[in-house]
Amino acid sequence: MKNSIRRTSISLVGTLLLAACAPESGDGDHRPDSTSQRPDREAETTDTVRDSSTRVVLPGLLGIMTGLETQMAQISRGLWLENFDTIAAGADAVANHPRVPPEEFQRISSVLGEEMSSFGGMDTRVHDLAVRLGEEARGGQLGAVLSADAELRQACVSCHSTFRERLREEIR
After folding, report:
1. 48 pLDDT higher than 70
2. Nearest 5°: phi and psi at 57?
3. Global confidence as pTM
4. Where exactly are the structural domains of the chain?
5. Is residue 71 within 8 Å of 93, Cβ to Cβ?
C-alpha cells in the first residue's frame, strides 16, 4: 500500500511539474488543449479507443479512466497556473465523462454484485464534486477551488482503493 501511495504521489508531482512548466497560450485564449501534454493519448481522450488490433471500440472503463486521468491533469495544470477557465473545463469534463458501455457494465455488475450500488454511489460522488469544482472555479475563489479539488481527488482515490484491483483482474 505504501509503495502504491508513493508511486501515485511521485506520478502526481511529475504531472504537476510538467503542467507548471508548460507554456500558456499567448493569444489570451486559455482553453485547455487535451492533446498538448500527451499527444500519444489523443484517441483515448475522444469518444472511442483503439485496441491493439487498431479497430475502434467503445470507451470501456479503462478508456474512461484514462480520459479522467487526462482531465484531472488539466485541473492540476489550471491550479498551478491559477487559470480558473482551465480548472472549470477539466472539472466539467470529469463530471460529464462517458458512460460505461452496457456489455461492460454487465460484467462489472457481475463482479461487484451487491457492491454495485456502492460503486455507483462513488461515481455519483465524483460527479457531484466535479460539478462543484467547476462552479467554484467559475466563481474565481482559489480557496474554495482547492477545497473542492481535494475532495474530488479523495473521492477518486477512495473508489480506486475499493474497486480498482478487483476490476482490473476480472474484466480484462
Report:
1. no
2. -125, 160
3. 0.66
4. 2-171
5. yes
